[in-house]
Amino acid sequence: MSGLKTEQEIADFVRVASGPLTIRGGRTRTLGLAAQGDVLDVSGLSGITLYEPGALTLVAQAGTPVAEIEAALAEQNQRLAFEPTDMTGLLGRTGTSTIGGVIAANASGPRRIQAGAARDFALGVRFVDGAGQVIKNGGRVMKNVTGYDLVKLMAGSFGTLGVLTEVSLKVLPAVEAEQTLVLRALSAEHAVRAMSAALGSPYEVSGAAWVDGDVWLRLEGFTASVAYRAASLQSALAAFGGADVVDDADWTQVRDAAPVHGSQAVWRISVKPSDGPTVVAGLPDGVRSLMDWGGGLVWVGHDASEALHHALQHQAASLGGHATLIKGPEALCSAVPVFQPEPAPVAALSAQLRARFDPRGILNPGLMVA
Fold first, then answer.
1. Topology of 177-255 in CATH?
2. What is the pLDDT of residues 11-22, one digit of tens each?
3. Do domains 7-173 and 258-335 have the same CATH topology?
């Protein structure tokens, strides 16, 4: 249902719902099968309700476009440091990314390895649970003394525990300068070694990715500091070959997984950085891939294949990680678990949480469980 403009209207709608609800915001991060049941559109809850640049704090309703928030921050020379991903290109969508969708998906870009994820910048949330109750957790400061840390719990729950209505965020100052060191033509194994060396150095690398066979290492900060750290890191990585210094590297290519755009199916695999090369080495010929977060995040693009899907999830589980089907045709999404199946103890805990926050099982049912 569209046209809902307030938190109370959403609460009333959920409370009287008689069947499943599909939570919809900007329509840019939808995973799995097409919407089932009634659509609950929260894009009408839009607007920045509080912004205190001096306190590095911003509060916005969940349907507020990310672009609107970033524009307001830019006027004060500030930013969302977790660098939220934009999935419109990968998924072929034309919607508008919203801050509620970002937090619900815990959508975090390459800077996560240095600054943290979206969940680390969420100070507080307001949401409507599956019984139609309005719940608030957290606030405008980084402190939580309640039982559940609902801020962290809601981040990455994809609307299965509650309908986000408002988010409080910590923001950070923008940077003065940025440079990227590029190491050319490295294998996945040597790339992870180079990225690990860079991330373990004192030079404050804010992005480390393997893109089309090249290693990208980003440095940000004051101009003089960036120049010094870039020169020092070049020397430290001499054993991996010469590194070019680039001032205008397009990190949105990494943030938005551009190398796998156009693939019929796309998987997002999270493992230990040292296991990234193992994932890449096990891929069939012709499969596109990208390693981010120093090798800890692997994007894989290929034709839709149940066999490949099961192989990726099996391998991820064996490495202690997980693989998620981000994009795929309906036939594939209906035949396989989109999210990595959880171990029995974790699945039991997840079921208890869903029973607590969505006792009727009506919020995005079946999305995160088979």
1. Alpha-Beta Plaits (3.30.70)
2. 999 999 989 998
3. no
